[in-house]
Design goal:
Blueprint (H helix, E strand, L loop, with lengths): L1 H6 L8 E4 L5 H11 L4 H13 L3 E8 L2 E9 L6 E7 L9 H15 L5 E5 L2 H9 L3 E15 L14 E14 L1
Parallel strand pairs: 4-5
Antiparallel strand pairs: 1-2, 2-3, 3-4, 5-7, 6-7
Length: about 180
């Protein structure tokens, strides 16, 4: 109990959000790499593409001057804002930040004129977690995700047609939740 109390759950007003910039790419990739088994360079390219997209951004959350989360935001459809790819650095896990962070980014986006916030959730655990925060499931859709494996003995080149790829397709079911 004392250890949990030492972290003292932050309040919504303790969270400072800022939009990520290109100088944050390495930090954002490091947060993802610590949590998931991915290639940093490929993810850095994804982050750069997101930051350069006119309707997408990445928000970074800090508590006590320490980055504790990042979340991707898509505002392409003016009727809704879509949140996805929410991730917390490993050192910030189990400190009670998650719920406060989602509540604070939703509040910030509503202040910035978002009328509806959807969350793109890709597994059952996350779906139930968002439901506990007050989101409700408003739709389910299916898509196919491709996983590409590159032969590590070959020189990796940027031209997709010159890479040797072995595609492994598997069906994914995604849920969308709404505040």
């Amino acid at each position: 109990y004392a250890k949990r109390k030492a972290h003292a759950n932050p309040r919504v007003q303790d969270v400072l959000w800022r939009q990520a910039t290109l100088s944050d790419i390495a930090l954002i990739a490091a947060i993802e790499k610590d949590n998931f088994n991915l290639q940093a360079l490929a993810y850095e390219t994804h982050v750069q593409n997101t930051l350069e997209h006119p309707h997408k951004t990445i928000w970074m959350a800090s508590i006590n001057d320490r980055v504790v989360a990042k979340i991707h935001v898509d505002t392409e459809d003016p009727k809704k804002t879509v949140l996805y790819d929410f991730c917390i650095p490993l050192e910030a896990h189990d400190k009670g930040y998650e719920g406060i962070l989602v509540q604070s980014i939703a509040g910030l986006l509503f202040e910035q004129s978002s009328k509806k916030i959807l969350v793109d959730v890709t597994d059952e655990y996350d779906l139930h977690w968002y439901k506990r925060l007050g989101f409700k499931c408003v739709g389910v859709y299916e898509h196919w995700r491709l996983r590409a494996y590159v032969n590590p003995m070959k020189e990796r080149v940027k031209q997709l047609d010159s890479m040797l790829l072995n595609f492994n397709c598997y069906k994914m079911q995604d849920q969308a939740s709404m505040i």
